[in-house]
C-alpha cells in the first residue's frame, strides 16, 4: 500500500466493486459497436475520452500537469506500448466472445505476472506459485479445449487466443510498472498509457474507419468515460485497502459480465464457463494472497 494511503478497507472494497461494474460497462459498449467499428477506431475513442476523467482526477489532486514530469521516458514507452497492444487484443476478443469469457480470461494476468516475475525478475518459483498456475491453466483448458476443432468454432478459438494474449501483454505492462513506479507517479503512468493508446488507435486511420452513427459515437464516448472512471476507482481501491483484502472480490467482479451477456446480448453463460470459473479464480486468488497470508505467518 502506498505510503500516503489511508487504511479504509470498506471504502477500498466498494471502489473495487465499482471498478468491476465500470469495466464491464466499457466492454459492453465496445462489444455493442464491434460489428460496425474497427478495433483501432474503438481503441482511439476509448482512450481519447478516458483522458477526460483521468485529467480531472489528476487536476483535483494537483498532479496536472506537474505530476506528468518523468525521468523514465523509455520505461513509459515500453509500459504504454504493451498496454496499448493488450487493449487491441482485448477489444478484438470481446468482438467474438461473450463479455464474461473475455473478462474471465483477463483474470489470468496475475498468473502471467507471477511467471514473469520468476523468468524476468529472478523471483523464487515457490510451490504456491506452481499450484496457482496449475489451477488457472486447468481452468483455461476446461473453457477452451471443448471449442478446439471445427470450422464453425474457429472464430471463437481465435477470440480465446486473443484474450489470453491480452492477459500476457497486460502482465508485461504491469511488470514494467513495478520497475518505473519507483520514480514515476501513478498519474503519469496512467496518463502516458492512455495517450499512447489513443495515438496507436489513430495510426489505424489509413486502414479504414467507419462513419459513425450518433448512437454508435455515443457508445464509444461512453466506453472511454467508463474506462477512465474504472481506472480511477481501481487505483483508489488499492490506495485504501490491501490487495489481499480485495482479491476475493474478483469473484464478484465476474457477476456483472455474466448478467450483461444474459440481459443485453441474450448469451447465457456456458456450462464450461461455470466449470472453469472456480479453477481459474482459485489460482488467481492464491497467487494474489501468496505474499500476504502464506508468507506472513512464516516470517512471524
Automatic annotation (TrEMBL):
Residue intervals of the EamA domain: 11-144, 158-287
Pfam families: EamA
UniProt keywords, alphabetically: Membrane, Transmembrane, Transmembrane helix
Annotated localization: Membrane
InterPro entries, alphabetized: EamA_dom, EmrE-like
Predominant cellular place of this UniProt entry's protein: membrane
Signal peptide: none
Protein topology in the membrane: Multi-pass membrane protein
Membrane-crossing segments per the record: 12-33, 39-60, 81-98, 104-121, 128-145, 157-177, 189-210, 216-237, 271-289
PANTHER family with a match to the protein in the record: ACYL-MALONYL CONDENSING ENZYME-RELATED (PTHR22911), SOLUTE CARRIER FAMILY 35 MEMBER G1 (PTHR22911:SF6)
Protein name per UniProt: DMT family transporter
Species this protein is from: Vreelandella piezotolerans
